[in-house]
Write a structure and sequence with these properties.
This protein has 612 residues and is an all-alpha fold. The chain has 34 helices and no strands. The radius of gyration is 36 Å and the shape is elongated.
Length: 612
């Protein structure tokens, strides 16, 4: 029988002491490994404790600081993460990977110059680390240098063909070269279309590859949605945006893209809701404010649009597109001085913004500065020979300057660029109308109405041409259609309808209709000039008071209102049978030289009919 082994006192003490000895022997490296494990499992406090313990054991352990930075990043403590990586680099300045990690954090903080500096330091250590080029691409993208971004993404993919982020980044950059991701390729000129389409196709290929490598890459779906919008595939874009939102419902940028797609589909309320959600997620999302402003314009909320544009400018005071967006709204509100100021501000930040010159030219034309308007539009066309609006705005200015042939040439060029732009036909029609070629003008107005049947002003233009051609019935139909489409565009058409009905022998009914309209008028002041015209036609205002009301401190307005006053007085004389007195009044109307006012051409037509 074998003797039993006895556990002696020292053996027992040794066994009890083992755990203590094991704890004392845990190394800084082991604490770092344990910290990494806890970080992966979401035990951030435990991870930090372990990394700090590693640093206590080895104050020069650069790896522990990297581990702390990773925990900081997961907890949203980006500044602290950068500080820990900086300390790591002080201890180990030869770590290319740590420079790249810090660059990635700087990119997320929008410190793009700092990110580029870190990447350049990384490249001095190693030129074969693909992540360095990917982060360089992200930094250049953030700075708006998309071509440099593409070059760096190319290099990242060469070094690592499985680099998902590089494909996505390159795709985003290629989309960005075609605009902000909200412009249809169809809006480019023919030469630009080829370039734009090649980039969009290449972008789609990159983004498809990124999604193949990582089907849960929310950013890749979001960017592919942008690319599909550029291709005009709005439904496909919506699908990608929806998938991106499923994967990352807190990405403010995807909601802004989703909103842009909804605008293109005519869902303006949906677009406003999406942009509002983007703003809730990121109150500093200036693009979301700009997108919401565009949707509000389509809804007719011009004041709301200006408020959103202004907020975008407050967030990014150097954003030329925000000034341009607000300028366009101010043009719609007839705030021409404000529009000119915003366009000028936009050009300070982007000297090559052709649309800023175009819109400023349009505003200058509306203020009567036709020389300045022509100069601005010409500059816009030097920058972008395919700018249709620049041709149209310059044509308007040329008409007023009496350069009818030049105006028609500009309209023709705009039509060549896009045969479906109603404004080009309208402008050419106006020029022919002023030249006295009313039949040809009506043909252009007909084409404009085919393209844009909801534009009330087009019916007013054609109605005036029918009036000059003495086609009273057709003119009456057009003027009625005009205020049927736009309740706020009634004043002058109502007076024209009174004249037409009076000529057709319906003066009593004409009086009743005009009086009813005057009583129901809700817009404008009670002493507005159109009200004075209506009151004069209804014999509620004497001739001397009528002429007194026509006087204005604004030279152009004064000339035009005196032209109108003499015309309406002449028409009253003509309807009363006094042709001689009517002819005198019509000649005085023409003597004002307000040739760009409708009544000037009406007076001219009446004189011609009278044989004068």
């Amino acid at each position: 029988m074998k003797p039993r082994h006895r556990i002696g006192k020292w053996t027992l003490l040794l066994s009890l002491a083992l755990p203590v000895v094991a704890h004392a022997q845990t190394t800084a490296k082991e604490y770092c490994e344990r910290g990494d494990s806890k970080n992966t499992k979401g035990d951030y406090d435990g991870a930090i404790a372990d990394f700090n313990r590693a640093i206590e054991l080895n104050p020069k352990d650069s790896v522990a600081y990297v581990g702390l930075a990773e925990v900081n990043e997961r907890r949203g403590e980006r500044e602290q993460a950068i500080a820990n990586l900086t300390r790591s680099l002080e201890l180990d300045p030869g770590s290319a990977k740590t420079y790249v990690n810090r660059a990635a954090l700087k990119n997320k903080s929008k410190d793009f110059d700092g990110a580029i500096a870190d990447c350049e330091k990384s490249l001095r250590i190693s030129r074969n680390y693909s992540e360095t080029y990917k982060e360089l691409g992200d930094a250049y993208f953030g700075k708006g240098d998309f071509y440099s971004a593409i070059a760096n993404y190319d290099r990242a993919i060469e070094l690592d063909p499985q680099k998902t982020g590089a494909y996505g980044g390159r795709g985003r950059a290629k989309v960005a070269t075609c605009g902000r991701g909200q412009v249809k390729v169809a809006t480019c000129g023919r030469g630009q279309v080829k370039v734009a389409r090649s980039y969009v196709d290449a972008a789609l290929a990159d983004l498809n590859r990124a999604i193949e490598l990582n089907p849960k890459d929310a950013k890749a779906f979001r960017c592919r949605g942008r690319a599909k919008m550029l291709k005009g595939d709005i439904s496909g874009a919506m699908e990608d945006f929806n998938r991106s939102i499923e994967l990352d419902p807190k990405d403010d940028v995807v909601y802004a893209g989703h909103a842009s797609a909804k605008v293109m589909k005519g869902d303006f309320d949906g677009a406003i809701a999406d942009d509002t959600r983007a703003i809730e997620l990121n109150p500093k999302a200036d693009d979301a404010y700009l997108g919401r402003a565009s949707a509000k314009v389509m809804k007719g909320d011009l004041d709301g649009a200006i408020a959103d544009d202004t907020r975008a400018i407050e967030l990014n005071p150097r954003a030329s597109d925000a000034y341009m967006s607000r300028a366009r709204v101010k043009l719609m509100k007839a705030d021409f001085d404000g529009a000119i100021a915003d366009c000028t501000r936009a050009l300070e930040f982007n000297h090559y913004a052709s649309d800023a010159y175009t819109n400023r030219g349009g505003a200058k034309a509306m203020k009567g500065n036709y020389v300045g308007a022509i100069a601005d539009c010409t500059r816009a066309l030097e920058l972008n020979p395919k700018d249709i609006d620049a041709y149209i705005n310059r044509g308007v200015a040329k008409v007023v300057k009496g350069d009818y042939e030049g105006a028609i040439a500009d309209s023709n060029r705009a039509i060549e660029l896009d045969p479906k732009v109603s404004n080009a036909y309208e402008n050419r029609g106006n020029t022919k109308y002023f030249k006295g070629e009313t039949e040809e003008a009506i043909a252009d107005y007909n084409r404009a109405i085919e393209i844009n049947p909801g534009d009330a002003q087009l019916y007013a233009r054609r109605g005036a041409a029918y009036f000059v051609r003495r086609n009273w019935t057709a003119a009456l139909v057009d003027f009625r259609k005009c205020f049927e489409l736009n309740a706020n565009y009634q004043d002058h058409p109502r007076c024209y309808i009174w004249l037409l009905r009076a000529r057709l022998g319906e003066k009593e009914a004409a009086n009743e209709e005009l009086a009813d309209c005057l009583n129901k008028r809700s817009n404008g002041a009670p002493d507005d000039w159109p009200v004075m015209v209506a009151r004069f036609l209804l014999e509620k205002l004497r001739g001397n008071d009528f002429f007194a009301a026509a006087v204005s401190p604004n030279a152009r307005k004064d000339r035009g209102q005196r032209c109108e006053a003499w015309f309406y007085v002449g028409m009253k004389r003509l309807l009363a049978g006094d042709k001689a007195a009517a002819a005198v009044c019509f000649r005085k109307s023409l003597a004002t030289e307000a040739w760009d006012w409708t009544e000037y051409h009406f007076a001219q037509a009446e004189l011609k009919a009278l044989g004068n």
